[in-house]
Amino acid sequence: RALLILYFQRFLGWNDNLGTAIYHTFVALCYLTPILGALIADSWLGKFKTIVSLSIVYTIGQVVIAVSSINDLTDFNHDGTPNNISVHVALSMIGLVLIALGTGGIKPCVSAFGGDQFEGGQEKQRNRFFSIFYLAINAGSLLSTIITPMLRVQVCGIHSKQACYPLAFGVPAALMAVSLIVFVIGSGMYKKVQPQGNIMSKVARCIGFAIKNRISHRSKKFPKREHWLDWASEKYDERLISQIKMVTRVMFLYIPLPMFWALFDQQGSRWTLQATTMSGKIGIIEIQPDQMQTVNAILIVIMVPIVDAVVYPLIAKCGLNFTSLKKMTVGMFLASMAFVAAAIVQVDIDKTLPVFPKGNEVQIKVLNIGNNSMTVSFPGTTVTCDQMSQTNGFMTFNVDNLSINISSTGTPVTPVTHNFESGHRHTLLVWAPSNYQVVKDGLNQKPEKGRNGIRFVNAFGESFSVTMDGEVYNNVSGHNASEYLFFSSGVKSFTINSPEISQQCEKQFKTSYLEFGSAFTYVITRKSDGCPEPKIFEDISPNTVSMALQIPQYFLLTCGEVVFSITGLEFSYSQAPSNMKSVLQAGWLLTVAVGNIIVLIVAGAGQFSEQWAEYVLFAALLLVVCIIFAIMARFYTYVNPAEIEAQFDEDDKEDDLEKSNPYAKLDFVSQTQM
């Protein structure tokens, strides 16, 4: 997931909205499939065999998505672009479905299988296990979010060199295969609880019978029963009814929880996109937008031991009864505050963004690529550009009453005749009073994904081509500009190619240091010796708001996750009957799936003009849900399924004893009377 959204955008060429939608659909699918895994584990194969078989599916899915990202798979003409992108899309989708089936299927089984290793009376050790389990997951997540972007930026390919997505996807596939082998080797050490038949079928039939029986006995002449499930007692035993009651009480509590995950999983989509509009330079280090997610994993690794060993014991010493449901309520509140922090950062970012033309407006800047000073008059203003210089930024005008005139000392005025396109930026290239060229910039927003736009203007005279960092600007004609191409941060080398350039001339040059989200025009001029010389002009300034400002929102969200997610895992296990441990874990994971579906609905239904408004909406929604959950939790009664089941076992033994010796009870009563 660390590079999935960038893979969608940069390799498959999808836009932000489609990439975000598919990302959240995939995440939702990963958390819907646990129901299937839980059913297989609790009813048929058992947890161990389910983990092994679905891990194989998981590994195959990772291999398929690694193959889908091989550029040379359909690059038949070796131009660096796949000839049949639909093959890559199809393979990607197959790979993601297999991964969703594998990862989702094992999710409820792994945590429940770990919980099964503990005996009764080891609740403290089991809680510690769930914390270590969650810590282990996030240690892996931390390594992946650091290493996979590093693997991605490597260059690989047979015929053309590209960002190495096959390596970034292939390494986790290999590691998954190794981890599966390690898990299987330990088989003899595990305590394996045998599946107890098709329990979910029994549950469904019991609930169906209870509802049907209740409806058919709704008359007042039938006495009320304590719980609606008690209407199944005519057909089903008390033990099963009691177990279903435990599950339904917990499932009812789960109803508000998806809202937490709706916010939490946006750190991989919206928060990553927010990072692309920020500067990745933090002190002496520089980080890419997709690496900001490592903050969550780093903080998890730090915070889990602190919360488990310091915070909770301190709260207990203060005499506060900090129950599981209270912890989860606090977690939801902290996540809500994280999105308030994200909104504040977004407002800060919006202040630094350039203003682009809207509606009937056009924006124009003058770039003088000649050897004389030029005066250009616009409605209400006149600007003078010295040789090889540009106006200070773009000027905004109404397209309907736009008149432009160019003049120079001792020359007649030349009117600019051009059909300006409203809603766009334009550059007016001038090199003599009667010589000009209007170029539509094609940039109506900051360059996406934190990249930098570079274009070349030919003031050299003869047509030339430029090669920069694997990208080619073909045949840039005299006194004209190329299209923008986009590059990641760093210093880039470029080579100017033209038959008119002498062999003795320097043809290879370096850019200035490219930061994040900027755009530059490189004007190639001719020196007195006939050799080319580049001159740099800034079109859009680089991002100035540091990605470090995202750390507070990540900190709040991580603290919320620690007290919400680990507690939820432990609570789901502790409140589940022995034959439905995986099912209730799957129910917990189902809340994550619904959370991602909420993101799809809200982001799709409300196309917000301001991103901060979307963050505030999500924060407000979670705050309302948090209050509702706190009220529901107030009325929840904690149970000990092991004790309840032990009581049923005791009752069953007594019943069996009575059946085998019908006089046992009579003798017992007689002795008591005596």
TrEMBL record:
It comes from Capra hircus (Goat). It catalyses: glycyl-L-glutamate(out) + 2 H(+)(out) = glycyl-L-glutamate(in) + 2 H(+)(in); glycyl-L-aspartate(out) + 2 H(+)(out) = glycyl-L-aspartate(in) + 2 H(+)(in); L-alanyl-L-prolylglycine(out) + H(+)(out) = L-alanyl-L-prolylglycine(in) + H(+)(in); L-alanyl-L-leucyl-L-alanine(out) + H(+)(out) = L-alanyl-L-leucyl-L-alanine(in) + H(+)(in). This is Solute carrier family 15 member 1. GO terms for molecular function: oligopeptide transmembrane transporter activity; symporter activity. PANTHER family: OLIGOPEPTIDE TRANSPORTER-RELATED. Belongs to the major facilitator superfamily. Proton-dependent oligopeptide transporter (POT/PTR) (TC 2.A.17) family. GO terms for biological process: protein transport. Its main location: membrane. GO terms for cellular component: apical plasma membrane. Keywords: Cell membrane, Glycoprotein, Membrane, Peptide transport, Protein transport, Symport, Transmembrane, Transmembrane helix, Transport. The chain crosses the membrane at residues 20-39, 51-70, 85-106, 127-147, 167-190, 246-264, 297-316, 328-347, 554-574, 586-609, 615-636. It is found in: Apical cell membrane; Membrane.
